[in-house]
């Protein structure tokens, strides 16, 4: 039997403002309960349960039971990419912020499990400029691979390249950033970099948020390896 993607069903699933808000909340990368998602979306828990059932049926979220609670998370990296893409093409709306201020979420944040915002785009630009990363030969223009120079430099930072390559996902790819309109680093390597920077305490994640804060020690170390940091205002 011939089959084709049911785009209309997925469009309807993410087209509901309450369901898309739940998916955006899950872009933090944490597993959340139905009650937490209901609170974040501004709806009653019973209403949230029906929306979560639809998202489960359509394969957009996954559910894990632990004790008396059920925890929901995005079904995978492809779903995160879908939400990030929607953020890029959606019309912009005014946000309340000080004039001339750099919004924290635009400066540094998580895009699912890798770094985005000006921090993420700056990291990728630096790695391309230093030829740590190069276009993957004969592949899609988005796909990247690590050069010999990159292996040496990233290993010096404590990045396990072989472990990243063994993960069952794309290794390294360009991911267009919705706020910067430039590429940041996605894929397994992007996730490993974010994990390593947190382990080194170069970055800290704000509680219940995708926003990332660069620590004073991290700012010094990131500048040492060649990253030009954008100053918050």
Automatic annotation (TrEMBL):
Picking any one GO biological process from the record gives: response to lead ion
InterPro entries named in the record = ArsR-like_HTH (IPR011991), HTH_ArsR_DNA-bd_dom (IPR001845), HTH_Metal-responsive_Reg (IPR052543), WH-like_DNA-bd_sf (IPR036388), WH_DNA-bd_sf (IPR036390)
Tree of life domain = Bacteria
Gene3D superfamilies in UniProt: Winged helix-like DNA-binding domain superfamily/Winged helix DNA-binding domain (1.10.10.10)
Report the residue ranges that make up the HTH arsR-type domain in this protein: 1-94
Q: Name one GO molecular function term.
A: cadmium ion sensor activity
Q: What is this protein called?
A: Transcriptional regulator
